Amino acid sequence: MTPLIQISGLTKTLTGQGEPRPILSGVDLTVHSGDSVAILGRSGSGKSTLLSLIGLFDRPDGGQYLLGGKDITRVPERRAARLRSEEFGFVFQRFFLLKHLTAAQNVAMALVNGQGWAARRNRRAKVMAALEQVGIAHLAKQRPPRMSGGEQQRVAIARALVRQPKILLADEPTGALDTETGALVIDVLHSATDRGCGLILVTHDHAHANRMRRVVRLTDGVLRPEPRGVLI
Ligand SMILES: Nc1ncnc2c1ncn2[C@@H]1O[C@H](COP(=O)(O)OP(=O)(O)OP(=O)(O)O)[C@@H](O)[C@H]1O
């Protein structure tokens, strides 16, 4: 079966104010439908940089990136924007919810606005299904300031899932949560893979990483498999 994501020899050098810094020097990564991969690595090793390339927020300098078998290594921004919204769901450490909107309204923000009663009914059904999927349908009318951190992150995950993305990219999604709540959020993210979604999780938490099918470590600009049980 064609992999969802097939990355080979990806390179990226970042040019800030100082000298250009090679961050990725030949990353290989293949993700299939229903796969889950945790990316570990010390702070500054380039995990977020890699995720931004996978999520098409930026382009690599070299290597190849195939999405569903199609070469998107140098995709122009217009098509990248469409792919970002149609193929990917994003979850970050910060929840980025609008405080004055309810949970359901926050999730609905991710859907294209359609006019008329049928479009509204369809949108509402999708929103409720996404909230149901993350276990907080009962909080649909609640606003973020009255929700716990874990509940807010689940709203953010529902927002990422409502368009039924093929790939879920999560960058430190438990960074702002306590251990127990974080584990629950990892459960919710992982359950998306049961429906065929591919999940890439960047985390510092070894226990959370160990919940994924595969664990890799970004060191010296390349991804290496992390032996199970040697997570320190
Ligand atoms: N736009 C940029 N220009 C120059 N350097 C950058 C830029 N963005 C990030 N960097 C540097 O690139 C390196 C990799 O950053 P990145 O955020 O990808 O690491 P990370 O592994 O995600 O780190 P952390 O675990 O702390 O989030 C860091 O040293 C960072 O300071």
TrEMBL record:
InterPro entries: AAA+_ATPase (IPR003593), ABC_transporter-like_ATP-bd (IPR003439), ABC_transporter-like_CS (IPR017871), ABC_transpr_LolD-like (IPR015854), MacB-like_ATP-bd (IPR017911), P-loop_NTPase (IPR027417). Keywords: ATP-binding, Nucleotide-binding, Transport. GO terms for cellular component: plasma membrane. Residues 5-232 form the ABC transporter domain. It comes from the Bacteria. It holds the Pfam family ABC_tran. GO terms for molecular function: ATP binding; ATP hydrolysis activity; transmembrane transporter activity. SMART domains: AAA. This is ABC transporter ATP-binding protein.
